[in-house]
Amino acid sequence: MRQSRMFIPTMRETPQDAESLSHRLMLKAGMIKQMASGIYTYLPITKLVLNNIEQIVREEMNAVGGVEIHMPVLHPKELWQESGRWDAYGRELMRIQDRHDRDFALGPTHEEMITALLRDELKSYKKLPLTLFQIQTKFRDELRPRFGLLRGREFIMKDAYSFHSDEASLDETYNDMYNAYSKIFSRVALNYRAVEADSGAIGGSHTHEFMALADIGEDTIVYTQGSNYAANIEKAACPAPESIEINSSEKVGKIETPNVSTCAALAEHMGISIEETTKTMIMRIGNDYAMILLRGDHELNDIKVKSYFKTDDVDFATDEEIRNLLNADPGSLGPVNTDLPVYLDYQVRNMQDYPTGANESGYHFINVNHERDFEVEDYDDFRFITEGEMVQDGSGPAKFMKGIEVGQVFKLGTKYSDSMNLNVLDENGRSVPVLMGCYGIGISRTLSAIVESHSDDRGIIWPKSVTPFDIHVITANPKDAEAVKIAEELYESLSSRYRVLYDDRKERAGVKFADSDLIGLPYRVVIGRGAKEGKVEVKARNSEDSMDLAIDDVLQYLE
Ligand code: ATP
Ligand code: MG
Ligand code: MG
Ligand code: MG
């Protein structure tokens, strides 16, 4: 590919508004262009790398029996109502209407779509197990899009879904996927760790996240030296007690509590703002509403449940107001404590369909601002593990590191089969719900994670497995006709074996070298003054040393 025909708008200046290394590098290397917050055009270099990552993902999905499909971006509201997530997903779900005023979601994930597909097509257990996957654009109206492609509002995900008639089969595919993910992240040269994760709002029994280790990561990994223990802090440190005493309220008394990360995940799904200020959730537990204070350290994963409380100095909602808000059948709600604080500037959504934690059904969140609306009494049993404390499995004192969640594997069980009626006939002709697993990889996030961990102060250093081109051929002086001729010939001959980017631009050598380092291809071949003597300069991007080689030896050297 001739660079004069490419579109690689590199920057000389370091972009000031970029908040992470990969974001900065990708802007500087002319890889992405922001069109709106969290929404990017992938420029040619990015597109080539995405293709390579997708190809690796496809190969490993196929290797474990995954079959590729392509589902719509537009999801009819009715399907999301069936699963309960039209309301429960909250503000992260992007919604639009067609010309007939019908509601649609822009798919943030595809459990509803695939369950609807399979319930129409799948009749017998004999068709199982089945694993389908797609690579597709997803939409999530993230509270705070940031770090370039690491947290976008429109991004590319590989999502796979597996279907089973028994647990053993689900276990087997889960393990296959776990291993496939390990291969994928090794192949794309990420330093990663698989960690136990909390199943949070999605429910289900078993889940792991794949974390690319990086300081910029938004997740905290708890691990111990010399053991296999590694868990997301949300999972590691939330030993949800059976019940807790509510500090200041004799009215509510003892209540059961879901675990902390469930709250966090629910809050995230609700789209509740938990940045900047500390927020609370109101949950309906049994017949009571209880408040939980989330102390956010500007990050979802730093949420700590600090206390339960009640307060007198905020607006009160009546039973009726709460019921209206929840849009629920009054009979199903039971008595409500009217003197619990409710601050009504946040939309309340019905959480009826989240079968999580210690709660049976029906918990609801209302946003309240700490300090403005109430006082707090600390309840110190609820906190995340701190560094040095013994971890849950007793394998040693907790150590922390930061990770970027690049993938997650999940045993869903029958959550969607139950709510959306995905059943098959078993051997005895009985109708049974299908067991499901789901498995996601952030393709565009993975790309950013690779850049985050493969660079030096001059630019990106692409791992060979995903590099957009293998070799950068550069004419040092475009006015030197003889050298240009040699460069053209070398470009032609290398192109038969390699993907070559040929910098034929009429630019100064210094500009070309700076761009070349920024773009970061594994090898650079410079055709300069030595060309007349049949010599070119070859340099590997990850080495400081270059060498002069006879033109005829270049191919051999690159082998
Ligand atoms: P996070 O905790 O970072 O918000 P998630 O747990 O909500 O991610 P999943 O629902 O597990 O994400 O989606 C599967 C994968 O999609 C994630 O592991 C991640 O790699 C990717 N992903 C999720 N949200 C984004 C986003 N906003 N931008 C880019 N990639 C994303
Ligand atoms: Mg998320
Ligand atoms: Mg997550
Ligand atoms: Mg996840």
UniProtKB/TrEMBL annotation:
GO terms for molecular function: proline-tRNA ligase activity. The keyword Signal does not apply. Keywords: Aminoacyl-tRNA synthetase, ATP-binding, Cytoplasm, Ligase, Nucleotide-binding, Protein biosynthesis. Pfam families: HGTP_anticodon, tRNA-synt_2b, tRNA_edit. Signal peptide: none annotated. It comes from the Bacteria. Its main location: cytoplasm. InterPro entries: aa-tRNA-synt_IIb, aa-tRNA-synth_II, aa-tRNA-synth_II/BPL/LPL, Anticodon-bd, Anticodon-bd_dom_sf, Pro-tRNA-ligase_IIa, Pro-tRNA-synth_IIa_bac-type, Pro-tRNA-Synthase_IIa_type1. Residues 49-463 form the Aminoacyl-transfer RNA synthetases class-II family profile domain. It is found in: Cytoplasm. Consists of three domains: the N-terminal catalytic domain, the editing domain and the C-terminal anticodon-binding domain. HAMAP family: Pro_tRNA_synth_type1. Belongs to the class-II aminoacyl-tRNA synthetase family. ProS type 1 subfamily. Homodimer. Catalyzes the attachment of proline to tRNA(Pro) in a two-step reaction: proline is first activated by ATP to form Pro-AMP and then transferred to the acceptor end of tRNA(Pro). As ProRS can inadvertently accommodate and process non-cognate amino acids such as alanine and cysteine, to avoid such errors it has two additional distinct editing activities against alanine. One activity is designated as 'pretransfer' editing and involves the tRNA(Pro)-independent hydrolysis of activated Ala-AMP. NCBIfam families: PRK09194.1, proS_fam_II. This is Proline--tRNA ligase. It comes from Salinicoccus sesuvii. The lineage of its organism: Bacteria, Bacillati, Bacillota, Bacilli, Bacillales.
